[in-house]
């Protein structure tokens, strides 16, 4: 026992994480438009393969709600056989970035962009899964999903199937919301498992006319990508999808690692090694034709809170998922689809950082605007373009914030007017600089001193020289510019 001093704590934690991960793996798979067992495969790989590798010792990987929308779009556009190619390429790119020590640079991504990305994903996820709760067909676009909800709700009123589905979905969400208020001895059972268990029992007892999970068996669901599928890599659309998978999965995993580090006092995350571990897991998932994996904050937090001390807990959770998938796959056939949709609606709601947005609006409205624009862009356009818009806004805001320039004018009434520029003069502040300079008197000699500038870009230098030529008149001395 002294060789494995934490085995008891890790064993207990692994069971808790397994019970949390099981319904989420199945729910993410169904929402992504792939067989339920594929979600379990990703959970198994995340536990055993990524779990054995170095990086973050306590965070747990598996299929994530944050990638559900992107995966669904990829499967819908390219087909399930090509998904393995996308995930394999994503894993190889992550390994390459980790080897090149690029993992640390993901921490430079604006938190507002990441939170906006998650908020946009959450909105699309909620809107899409509400159709499953109503036993209705969801529109393709994010805006279409949101706009069509009132009509779908009205249509459900006259359908027994829709009402039964709505009751199970709403009941699942209610259990998840109220579970944290239950007595501690009851909360030993994780909320998602309790919600799915109660919904399944209700569906069986009342013989509810709702859709349930289709079961194909573990081996029957694994579809390694064929050689023909690799031919799709020649398409620009698929390359863009791979880049989106890579950036979003990596950012979500490394931000999760930073959050998990704040929850415990153990070893800190080695970001580059963690990126390699995520890449290795995704490469294996790609070979198996499974869903992409990321580190998942819900499972990771459950792992830490359950008392895990080493990576053994996450590896064992992967083993429990494997045993369940191999020995008890038939149990999945009893799980109602609207209950899984309810779990994902709740998960999507938790992706929307309402408290953070309120705080940002009070103190940093520019960051709040980036968050909102990123989220709205993801809903209105697509995941990849929305994130790019958010990153571009973040870069522009940073450039604007760093362009602090001050113009001090000293006019003693006689002699030349002294103008001193200091700070960082960039094209972003050029209108302000020129407005101030053009307000100087035309009939007096002017001396413009640039020695106080830390930075003067080409656009500003050219504009200042042009102003000096225009401002000089025949009656006064030419503007004297003291070079930086």
TrEMBL record:
<keyword id="KW-0472">Membrane</keyword>
<dbReference type="Pfam" id="PF00916">
    <property type="entry name" value="Sulfate_transp"/>
</dbReference>
<feature type="transmembrane region" description="Helical">
    <location>
        <begin position="191"/>
        <end position="213"/>
    </location>
</feature>
<keyword id="KW-1133">Transmembrane helix</keyword>
<keyword id="KW-0812">Transmembrane</keyword>
<feature type="transmembrane region" description="Helical">
    <location>
        <begin position="368"/>
        <end position="396"/>
    </location>
</feature>
<feature type="transmembrane region" description="Helical">
    <location>
        <begin position="319"/>
        <end position="348"/>
    </location>
</feature>
<protein>
    <submittedName>
        <fullName>SulP family inorganic anion transporter</fullName>
    </submittedName>
</protein>
<feature type="transmembrane region" description="Helical">
    <location>
        <begin position="78"/>
        <end position="100"/>
    </location>
</feature>
<feature type="domain" description="SLC26A/SulP transporter">
    <location>
        <begin position="8"/>
        <end position="374"/>
    </location>
</feature>
<feature type="transmembrane region" description="Helical">
    <location>
        <begin position="12"/>
        <end position="31"/>
    </location>
</feature>
<dbReference type="InterPro" id="IPR001902">
    <property type="entry name" value="SLC26A/SulP_fam"/>
</dbReference>
<feature type="transmembrane region" description="Helical">
    <location>
        <begin position="233"/>
        <end position="255"/>
    </location>
</feature>
<feature type="transmembrane region" description="Helical">
    <location>
        <begin position="156"/>
        <end position="179"/>
    </location>
</feature>
<feature type="transmembrane region" description="Helical">
    <location>
        <begin position="112"/>
        <end position="136"/>
    </location>
</feature>
<dbReference type="InterPro" id="IPR011547">
    <property type="entry name" value="SLC26A/SulP_dom"/>
</dbReference>
